[in-house]
Design brief:
Radius of gyration: 17 Å
CATH architecture: Alpha-Beta Barrel
Largest sheet: 8 strands, parallel, barrel
Number of domains: 1
Number of helices: 10
Shape: globular
Helix content: 25-40%
Bound molecules: 2-phosphoglycolic acid
Number of strands: 8
CATH topology: TIM Barrel
CATH superfamily: Aldolase class I
Strand order of the largest sheet: 1-2-3-4-5-6-7-8
Strand content: 5-15%
Order of helices and strands: EHEHEHEHEHHEHHEHEH
Distance between the termini: 16 Å
């Protein structure tokens, strides 16, 4: 079956009101938006309201980078799925390696981990909260360099998928999006070779086949690749049969580069 490609830009903790608006304006001028490619921009929480207004007349979707699972209440500093929905957010990244405390460039160490308390359990709660607000989660999974070297790529990813999704039924997951993001390729400039990214994305699709007793589900789910995607490598990655687009960090901060990546999809 033909799955619609999806390209999402993850701005991470970058840009202010003026620079964020300028980037969106430049991107909208350069990008050719097509029916067969979904485009999502995920700015920091501070820019969601402003970007909602600026993206309103385009077909670019608004995404968030994280969410808290409770609907409201005494949770200082957090943002709920209901608040995101109220801002017109349609997609939300969950379980990014950086919120799990696993970094490609900085050391993943005892010093960083305690500040980023994401676990499979919190990821699962976040997905549930997003479903409740009809926001599409983009679940990130991926191995560190040490795990890859130890031959644990598949077991790490299977455990992340199992931990996040075991409480859900196939019917709930029909529009689900997974991003395979090898931690060692994030922000490092080192992209996973396209054949290897395809192999792991096909492993992820296979995981859905084995886990859920619904033959249509694995064909519907979109699996993105993320980790140093740029204009120069996007086409080769997106041409692979099991790679349905990309989650783009650094390169989404450059309007021309991001527009070229979208054109590659
Ligand atoms: P990168 O980040 O493209 O800068 O490697 C990707 C991501 O973290 O989603």
């Amino acid at each position: 079956m033909q799955r619609t490609k999806l390209v999402a830009g993850n701005w991470k903790m970058n840009l202010l009101q003026s620079t964020g608006s300028a980037l969106v304006e430049a991107f909208l001028q350069k990008v050719e938006l097509r029916q067969d490619v979904d485009v999502v921009v995920c700015p920091p929480f501070t820019l969601l309201g402003r970007l909602r207004d600026e993206l309103r007349r385009s077909h670019v979707h608004l995404g968030a980078q994280d969410v808290f699972w409770a609907e409201d209440g005494a949770f200082t500093g957090n943002i709920s799925a209901r608040m995101l929905a109220d801002l017109g957010v349609s997609h939300c990244i969950v379980g990014h390696s950086e919120t799990r405390g696993r970094f490609g460039k900085l050391d993943t160490s005892e010093t960083t981990l305690p500040y980023f308390g994401e676990t499979n359990e919190t990821i699962s709660l976040k997905i549930q909260a997003l479903f409740y607000q009809s926001i599409e989660p983009i679940l990130c999974v991926g191995e560190t360099l040490a795990e890859r070297k130890a031959g644990q790529t598949e077991s790490v990813i299977a455990a992340q998928l199992e931990g996040a999704l075991s409480g859900f039924d196939a019917a709930e997951l029909f529009f689900f999006i997974v991003a395979y993001e090898p931690v060692w390729a994030i922000g490092t400039g080192e992209t996973c070779p396209a054949d290897e990214a395809e192999r792991v994305c096909s492993f992820i699709r296979e995981w859905f086949k084995n886990k859920f007793n619904d033959p249509d589900l694995p064909e519907q789910i979109r699996i993105l690749y993320g980790g140093s995607v740029k204009a120069a490598n996007a086409k080769e990655l997106f041409n692979k049969p099991n790679i349905d687009g990309g989650l783009v960090g650094g390169a989404s901060l450059d309007a021309t580069e991001f527009a070229t990546i979208v054109a590659s999809a």
